[in-house]
Amino acid sequence: MAEPKREEEKVIPIDGVRMEREADSAQDSGDSTSGDPPAGFETSLAAELLKLKAEKEELLQTMIRRQADFENFRKRTERDRHEEGRRGVERLILDLIPVLDAFDRALQAHDDPAYEEYRKGITLIRKQLWDSIAKHGVQRIDAAGKIFDPHMHQAIERLESQDYQDGFIVAVFQDGYMFHGRVLRPAIVRVAVNSGESENSNTNEN
Description:
Elements: H1 14-35, H2 41-109, H3 116-134, E1 138-141, E2 153-160, E3 169-174, E4 176-179, E5 182-185, E6 187-193, H4 195-205
Parallel strand pairs: 2-6
Antiparallel strand pairs: 1-4, 3-6, 4-5
Helix pairs in contact: 2-3
């Protein structure tokens, strides 16, 4: 029987294998070279990082300034609201002070024992009214027996006398009132004028 023909074996020359390996090596070398960062890349990255840091710091400072402005605005608004409320209370108290004066005149006018019950009722009502406004910071100016102060007293009469010190308040015609340290109404008073002290003072000055 005739033997079957064998397929011809392909023979690759050794030079061809070497050339293929050299080509693969050259390609690998090219790929590794292309992966390296280009010249100046790190410098550009550092510059971009510095820029971002500067922008972040600027935004932070802007936020701090805005926060401070808002806090100042909040405090100013709270202060204005508080002052407006105080002015409203002050206006109300100014309207109520004449009512106190009316109670005082009523108590002074009826000192007859027959009106004792009437006086007790008026006194109680006046006390309730006074307690209501006093808790808001109202104070009566204690002028009797004090030395005249033009910031707190208003003199409508002068009494020449050697028995009192010059400027001594002899009588109080109408009470004065203060509200949180500010004079709402000065006390109406009579002031002693000691001409002897005035002359002595002028003599000492000369």
